[in-house]
Amino acid sequence: MQIRFQLNGKPVTVDVPPHELLSELLRDRLGLTGTHVGCDTSQCGACVVHVDGRSVKSCTTLAAALEGATVTSIEGLADGAALHPMQQAFHEKHGLQCGFCTPGMIMSSVEFAKNNPDPTPEAVRHWLEGNFCRCTGYQNIVSSVQAGAAAMHAQRKGA
Amino acid sequence: MRTFDYVRPATLPEALSALAASPEARALGGGMSLVPALKLRLAAPSALVDLRGIPELRGIRITDDAIVIGATTTHADVAAHPAILDRLPALAALAGGIGDPQVRNCGTIGGVVANNDPSADYPAALLALGASIETSRGSHAADDFFTGMFETALAPGEIVTAIRFPIPKQAAYEKFKSPASRYALVGVFVAVTAGGVRVAVTGAASCVFRAEMIESALGERLAPESLEGLRFSTDGLNADMHADAPFRAHLIGVLARRAVSKLLATGKVN
Ligand SMILES: Cc1cc2nc3c(=O)[nH]c(=O)nc-3n(C[C@H](O)[C@H](O)[C@H](O)COP(=O)(O)OP(=O)(O)OC[C@H]3O[C@@H](n4cnc5c(N)ncnc54)[C@H](O)[C@@H]3O)c2cc1C
Ligand code: FES
Ligand code: FES
To answer: How many angstroms away from the CA of B38 is the closest CA of chain A?
Structure first.
């Protein structure tokens, strides 16, 4: 079946089998391998993207259901060579080691930070319950999200 | 994953006829239980009938004495709804404690209720509050709806359209989460309703149930101390890699006491 949706700001028209997952469409057919797949049980959050501004697990989303939707993957965050403030914060605060969980962490955090300009560490940890990291011990991820949230709102005020 | 037909009807009658067309067709809500089951080949439907394109199934209505939540309303929308936060905060908190943000952004109340997972949170709220489940065929009382593990009173092809919660005098929910999935190892919902104290327990057994022993103790005196010394039988309680039956029996008492304390602390009497 044919679907049309917006992907990272551009219109896309693709034929999808009804059982194709959004993660498979992005990675295997559209070449956007920044979205990672870390589990088979919808629990790890490595695959998080935004659909209509909300974070969802692309490994548990049928591509067929996306007709007319607006999808943003990790590749859609940066503005040319300038990293998104949340990406920049993960870079500066060392919010990653192997980097496998990072795209999902960042996509999830961007939704959170939109409504939370100055989050407490507890609030960040609660929000990131669906994003597993097997390297960092989370400490630097929490600092990154706090810094990223502040930077996103400072940028908005400045603009 | 085995393939299937995917349809997204715009009206309830179209959805009903799509489901009636094949005994293997299944409704699709948020997909948070069904898609993982498809991936693991635990389910292999001939067709998925996506209910999210039907406008009247989504949204929240407040009347004088009830909160009516459309079947495809997400957990995130229930958790953030100002009138639910005001009139039935225990329900908003329950919805906000389901899974993780991404599960709450997709998962729907109708999907949870139709699925009747023994560890799901909402069934405890429905049963304790004496909710009714409105469907394409009529209405079911929560007391008669949850019939067994992943079993409900729904007939094949019947669609849940909304859940109606009567607004209680007071209510509170406490759960002990599985640290991996956040599903309830045990969850206890305590409600003071027009018909008396009602207590429902999820996660502990194969299906949500009412705890009559706790209800009558709290009916005499609404205080955590009323539950001191009560012993819960391990008969029929779940034992799995997360917890054995004696631990679950113990948790019922602990969580019931915590829920009563919380309910008294909020001091909200409608
Ligand atoms: C990682 C993870 C953690 C989770 N943690 C929790 C938790 O802590 N607590 C909890 O309660 N749940 C939890 N869930 C489950 C979640 O709440 C799901 O949203 C829910 O079980 C199913 O709802 P759904 O809308 O996604 O339904 P779907 O997966 O789309 O459907 C589930 C079943 O219901 C049927 N169905 C759906 N809608 C209707 C309808 N309107 N009428 C008739 N039949 C219908 C479908 O045919 C299917 O059989 C978790 C899920 C995941 C993936
Ligand atoms: S890949 Fe693990 S939640 Fe999607
Ligand atoms: S940085 Fe390796 S899993 Fe998070």
So the answer is: 9
